[in-house]
TrEMBL record, chain A:
The keyword Iron-sulfur applies. Residues 12-114 form the FAD-binding FR-type domain. This is Oxidoreductase. Pfam families: DHODB_Fe-S_bind, FAD_binding_6, NAD_binding_1. One of its GO terms (biological process) is pyrimidine nucleotide biosynthetic process. GO terms for molecular function: 2 iron, 2 sulfur cluster binding; flavin adenine dinucleotide binding; metal ion binding; oxidoreductase activity. SUPFAM superfamilies: Ferredoxin reductase-like, C-terminal NADP-linked domain, Riboflavin synthase domain-like. Binds 1 [2Fe-2S] cluster per subunit. [2Fe-2S] cluster binds at C251, C256, C259, C267. InterPro entries: Cbr1-like_FAD-bd_dom, Cyt_c3_hydrogenase_gsu, Dihydroorotate_DH_ele_sf, Dihydroorotate_DH_Fe-S-bd, FAD-bd_FR_type, FNR_nucleotide-bd, OxRdtase_FAD/NAD-bd, PyrK_electron_transfer.
Length: 285, 348
């Protein structure tokens, strides 16, 4: 006889939330702070997720899609997202004013294995919109600074005006307890005070104990190969190289199948994968 | 498991007595094929082989409203229909067991679970035709996932009682059932031997995970991709296919919005396409490869058995002869007889 299963809360039911704050980071990328309306859920939900997890955000009659959480559970209260206007749902989302209602489900996904990273040096490489999930982990590490070894954060953008969270990183650069390096591919206006070139050039500044380093990369697909090679040159083992991936998802719970790669559902087995996973599951990257 | 005997003459009477559990559904002849239809038990075809659409339609309907949005609030929506579903063959029950494993893991799907609770499942034995190969997928015998299971021995049924609900179902009409005698057991053994020897098709799947893995770059996928119509029939008729899409639809009359869940197919072009137009599996060959990799490799590594129950539906349904039989043969470099095999020769 099959095991009887208890019928719990409906996992497809979204939670009502409001956009409490929004502003443009670049021409087509906007920052959203979204607060769950139910006061009983605000703290439990916003303090217990893992960096690297995502939420399903929906607008009725438009649709639902997954978005990386860019805030950290160490600063609970709101969920933050960094969203590019690229499709039907995001176009509608960009039309919404502050205090508009949106709907959230989640958090979903495995997130970064933060507990495995404790005691290790951390090396982040972010490119373009890839900063969204990495900012969550970076802020989490900075808020729990004593738990980690050295922290290096490398961030590349096409031009100065394309750099997401630019001012925030300028301020973070001033901190003494971690190393933050920013670069742009080109600087048409001649205003950029830091490195100019591709993000992998910034590896010249990196001094970590490679065997005891968790290296994390997120960015446009073309970036992965070059950055992963740099990690391997440093000597970081396959299972300590993490990357977070993007796929089409309709449920977020390992059911609808649209994010499937090989035998992995990116929504529940990912979106964070190690280089070892990537080597053994064809089609992940 | 408790086994009882039911006379063939009492079969209709027994099934009618089950109407108190819900609507009566079973295999009925439609054209050259069979479908699960709501009917009186006299019309059920005891010799029915595979239905066009498998019984998954009762547990994950082709289209169903899961949420409704009105006046600024969402509310849960599900039309649960109590049914007695008769005539599920062992392969079909195995497929439902895969469904059960899949939909009750991680975030248990409340819609599926409620449908499962609302249905009484009555299995039925069968004699394989030339497209059945459940002996190879080890799904020709089933010991869980049904409330009652009937083995047809000509003038009588042996009835396996698989759940407390099944026990309740026969209790009200207990007088119809008899204890199994030594002669019945002999008849069963004879029947079973005949059944096991009736398999004509053999598709050994044992080595497939490695073979599919090694053939990942093989040009055979491109050949099949060229032939594939992306029609999605294989996924609709496959009893282990679980994928779905979710879409919001506005209902003008009711002035409300419905969140619909619909069957979906990994061979559709939009399946892996994200906002902005990037498609992770643009080529048809890539999508076909996903289907067969998922069935024969992925599911195997996760659950220890392939996500194929040997029902033969893809063999019957695919209009361009891409099915479990031809794919396995092609990957093993055997002759398939499919038209695209000749296409390959022409291109080579």
């Amino acid at each position: 006889m099959l095991e009887a299963k208890k019928i719990n809360k409906n996992p497809y039911m979204p939670e009502k939330a409001r956009i409490v704050r929004k502003y443009d980071l670049t021409e087509d990328v906007r920052f959203f702070q979204i607060r769950i309306i139910n006061p009983d859920l605000v703290l439990p939900l916003t303090s217990s997720y893992k960096p690297g997890q995502f939420m399903m955000l929906s607008i009725p009659n438009v649709g639902e899609a997954p978005f990386s959480i860019t805030s950290t559970p160490s600063r609970p209260g709101v969920f933050e997202f960094c969203i590019r206007k690229v499709g039907k749902l995001t176009t509608k989302l960009f039309e919404l004013k502050e205090n508009s209602v949106v709907w959230l489900r989640g958090p979903f996904g495995n997130g970064f294995p933060v507990e495995q990273m404790v005691g290790k040096d951390l090396l982040f490489v972010a490119g373009g919109l890839g900063v969204a999930p990495l900012r969550s982990l970076l802020l989490y590490a900075l808020d729990n600074r004593e738990l980690f070894g050295k922290i290096f954060y490398l961030h590349g953008a096409r031009t100065p005006k394309d750099m997401l969270f630019r001012e925030e990183f300028f301020r973070l650069k001033e901190r003494d307890d971690f190393e933050c390096y920013l670069s742009v591919d080109s600087d048409p206006l001649g205003v950029w005070p830091f490195d100019i070139g591709v993000v992998t050039d910034l590896f010249k500044y990196v001094k970590v104990n490679a065997a005891n380093t968790a290296a994390v990369v997120c960015g446009p697909p073309v970036m992965y190969k070059f950055v992963v090679n740099k990690f391997l040159e440093l000597g970081v083992p396959d299972n300590q190289i993490f990357m977070t991936l993007e796929r089409k998802m309709k449920c977020g719970m390992g059911k609808c199948g649209q994010c499937v790669v090989g035998h992995k559902y990116v929504c529940v087995d990912g979106p964070v994968f190690t280089l070892w996973d990537v080597k053994n599951i064809r089609g992940l990257i | 498991m408790r086994v009882l005997k039911l006379k063939k003459g009492d079969f209709v009477l027994f099934l009618k007595s089950l109407k108190r559990f819900g609507e009566l559904w079973g295999p009925v002849k439609k054209g050259d094929s069979y479908v699960y239809a709501r009917a009186e038990p006299e019309n059920f075809d005891l010799k029915a082989i595979r239905t066009i659409i498998p019984a998954k339609k009762f547990f994950l309907p082709k289209k169903s409203t899961i949420l409704k949005f009105k006046n600024g609030e969402w509310r849960e929506h599900q039309e649960v229909v109590n049914r007695v579903i008769f005539g599920l063959h062992p392969c079909e029950i195995h497929a439902l067991n895969i469904y059960h494993k899949f939909y009750s893991r991680l975030y248990p799907d409340t819609y599926y679970l409620k449908n499962r609770e609302a249905n009484l499942i009555i299995g039925l034995s069968c004699i394989p035709d030339d497209k059945c190969f459940c002996a190879n997928t080890r799904t020709s015998v089933v010991d869980e996932g049904f409330d009652l299971f009937l083995t047809d021995l000509g003038d009588k049924f042996l009835v396996w009682i698989g759940s407390p609900k099944g026990e309740t179902a026969i209790r009200h009409v207990g007088h119809l059932f008899e204890t199994v005698t030594a002669e019945d057991i002999e008849d069963y053994i004879t029947w079973r031997k005949e059944r096991d020897e009736a398999f004509q098709l053999k598709i050994p799947l044992e080595g497939m995970p490695e073979i599919v893995s090694f053939s990942y770059e093989s040009s055979i996928w491109d050949v099949m991709g060229e032939a594939c119509l992306s029609c999605g029939t294989c996924t609709m008729v496959c009893p282990t296919c679980t994928c779905f899409d979710i879409q919001d639809e506005y209902d003008i009359k009711a002035e409300e919005m419905n969140r619909e869940r619909l069957w979906y197919s990994c061979v559709y072009r939009e399946y892996s396409m994200v906002a902005g137009g990037h498609n992770f599996r643009e080529a048809r060959s890539e999508r076909l490869k996903l289907w067969y990799t998922h069935k024969l490799v992925g599911f195997m590594s996760k659950y220890g058995s392939p996500a194929c129950v040997g029902c033969g539906r893809c063999i019957v349904s695919c209009p361009v002869e891409i099915n479990i039989l031809t794919v396995v043969k092609a990957l093993k470099k055997e002759k398939t007889g499919a038209f695209w095999e000749r296409m390959e020769v022409k291109n080579a």
